[in-house]
Amino acid sequence: MKDITVMLGDTALDAATVFRYIDIRFNMTNKLKTSSPIYRTPITLLEHAGDRQFATTLARGMELLRCFTPLDPVLGNRELARRMQLPAATISRLTYTLVTMGYLAQDEHQGKYRLGSAVISLAHPMLELFNIRRRARPLMLDLAHKTGGSVSIGIRDRFNIVYIEAIRSDNKRIYPLDVGTSHSMVGTAIGRAFLMSCTLAEREALLNQLRLKVPHEWERHEDELLRNVAEYPRHGCCVSVGEIYEDVQAVAVPLGRIDRGEPASVNCSFQGKALNREWLITQIGPQLQTLARLLL
Questions:
Q1: pLDDT tens string 76-116
Q2: Helix ranges (DSSP H) in the chain
Q3: What pTM, to 2 d.p., does this model score?
Q4: Structural domain boundaries, residue 25
Q5: Is 60 exceeded by the pLDDT of residue 13?
Q6: Do 133 and 117 sit in the same domain of this protein?
Q7: Are 285 and 205 found together in one domain?
Q8: Tell me, what CATH number does 168's domain have?
């Protein structure tokens, strides 16, 4: 292949020199290094980049909906673009489409967006598939009244646990507890008990994923998580004492595979009581185990 030369006035320059000049003149290298990356695949799902079966536009829309939380119920296009690291024009098309379909609603005063009623309609048919909720409700209510705690059933939502049923003993609780509430898998009793509902291979794979995907949570809760896994054969339950909220403690047991074959777990949590790991294990744990056996 012949060398390529470029004439600049009367001077002949080789291609490499020309490219170095362009780079220095227009600072292209620095621009590439300092500009924020724009991802085609959502940044939370980069493991699917290059997968030809993966519908990127659909994934973007679903990930956009997950940006809305109880702490951030109203968001604008600019904030959504920043969080998703997508161009503003792309976000604008997504929000327009989701508003049209009812999954988003536009706030009249701020011009920003909040979740629309279609999200509830989408969730309800799934909840109805879990027959265990109807069978468990009276048992959970009885245990909540006996212990003064709150009883919840949870399944996996990526690297969190989401409640599909929740019974409060009272309405004085400050921390979030309701159907659809999502909590850390690593730092909660119900998340650790969920791991014990998985097969050994599933559990080992999920533990490796947790190390990689939620490193900050893993670093904070690793010791207690692994302690619970190691002590489960002796106690038959898992606990979390003041780890997520300093005045909240909980004990949980696995439910094994429930409706649709999904692993699940059930917990009993307390807020405002003196923290007591031994009391959770010896007094509340056996009552949860009895409840779990009645649901099998």
A1: 999 999 999 999 999 999 999 999 999 999 987 788 999 99
A2: 15-26, 28-34, 56-66, 77-84, 88-101, 118-128, 132-147, 189-197, 200-213, 215-235, 277-279, 285-295
A3: 0.82
A4: 5-34
A5: no
A6: no
A7: yes
A8: 3.30.450.40
